[in-house]
Structure formats: C-alpha cells, structure tokens
Amino acid sequence: MSEALQVTAFGLALLSTLFLLLATCTDCWMVNADDSLEVSHKCRGLWRECVTNMQDGVRTCDQYDSILADHPVKIVVTRTLMITADLLAGLALATLVLGLDCITFLKEDPHVKLKMCYGAGVILGAGSILGLIGCVWYAVDVYVERAMLVSHNVFLGVHYDFGWSCWLGMAGSTGCFVASLLLTCCLY
Fold first, then answer.
1. In sequence order, what are the residues at sequence separation of 6 or more whose Cβ sits closer than 8 angstroms to the Cβ of residue 36?
2. How far apart are CA 35 and CA 38, in angstroms?
3. Given its phi and psi angles, is residue 157 left (phi above 0), alpha (psi -120 to 50 degrees) or beta?
4. What is the pLDDT, as a whole number, of residue 155?
5. What's the CA angle centered on 34, arms 64 and 133, to 5 degrees?
6. How much is the pLDDT for 154?
7. Considering the entire predicted model, what is its pTM?
8. In sequence order, what are the residues at sequence separation of 6 or more whose Cβ sits closer than 8 angstroms to the Cβ of residue 188?
9. How far apart are alpha carbons 116 and 184 in whole angstroms?
C-alpha cells in the first residue's frame, strides 16, 4: 500500500511540476476576450506579449525590456512566486525520488526513506501554496483591472480574461498540494 501511494504521489507531483514550469514559461496569462470582430489574438505573459494574426497565423512577440526594468507589481510578484514554486517543486521531486521504496538508495534504512518522503511532501506543499498565491494574485489583478475599466465606462477596444497559462498554473499548484497531502498525511 505504501509503495503504491508513493508512486501515485510521485506521478501526480511530476505532472503538476511540469504544469507549473509550463505555466511559468508560457505567454497566455491574459488573453483578449473573444469577439467576432477580432482579427488578432493577443496574449500577455510574465515575460512577453504576443499577437497572432487570425487570418494568416503569423505570430509576433515583444519581449519585456528587462527582468530588472520597472514592471507592474502583478508581473513581478507572480514571477517571483512562480519561480520559487518551480524551484521548490523540483527540489521536492528530487527528494521524493530518493525516498521512494522502489529506489535502492538507502534501502537498508526505511525510516530515513520515510522521512525523505515526508520532507518532500512538506516542500511540495510550500511550493504549491506559493504557486497558487501567484496564480490567484495575477487572476484577481486581471479581474480588478477589468472591473475598474467597466465601472468607469472606459473602453480601450480590447479587454482581457484569464488565459490558459494562469489556469495551468492553478492546476499544477493544486496537483502539487494534493501530492503533498498524500505524502504528509496518508503515507504514515
């Protein structure tokens, strides 16, 4: 039972970590809302903004000037939280691999392996909470920005909704949290 639970938690943690990494690197944290008159699809990410022409499929991207440039708070905070979540999830995966019962490392000391799995669960939980805070922070900021424009009757021609990168980050963070619960609460 314990080995099956460990492998399940590892598979979920691996998939969720990949989701977190993909969300951090991709460009569609904010997308323009669907409109039948739109001839282009705009995505804003943590690192650049891209526009895809719907007629010929040509995609152009503008990199943000510099990592150290003056960016909006939502981008800086989300970048920081997502990168930290990625690093913690990667560390947790490395620790979990060494703590799995099916790995021969420290096979003679099962108590240490159990502690490694528990520690990996704690690290994964911390990373998942940071990732979820980053994604929710960004999503709330997008919603507040849109609500402020609507409440002041400002129409800029384009309004943005949450993109698939934001949803992917939330899914990855949630998966890491579930894997953390499996490792910390159910393994003993």
1. none
2. 5
3. left
4. 62
5. 55
6. 65
7. 0.85
8. 114, 118
9. 11
Nearest of 129, 134, 130, 127 to residue 166 by alpha carbon: 134
Task: Supply the DSSP symbol for 152.
Answer: T
Domain ranges of the chain: 3-28+71-155+162-186
The residue behind tokens 């400002």 is: 154
Task: Answer whether 174's CB lies under 8 Å from 154's CB.
Answer: no
CATH topology of domain 3-28+71-155+162-186: Butyryl-CoA Dehydrogenase, subunit A; domain 3 (1.20.140)
Cβ–Cβ contacts within 10 Å for residue 180, how many? Answer: 26
Yes or no: say if 21 and 86 are a contact pair by the CB < 8 Å rule: yes
* Whole-number Å distance between alpha carbons of 156 and 43: 16
Residues with pLDDT less than 70, the chain: 1, 34-38, 65-69, 150, 153-159, 187-188
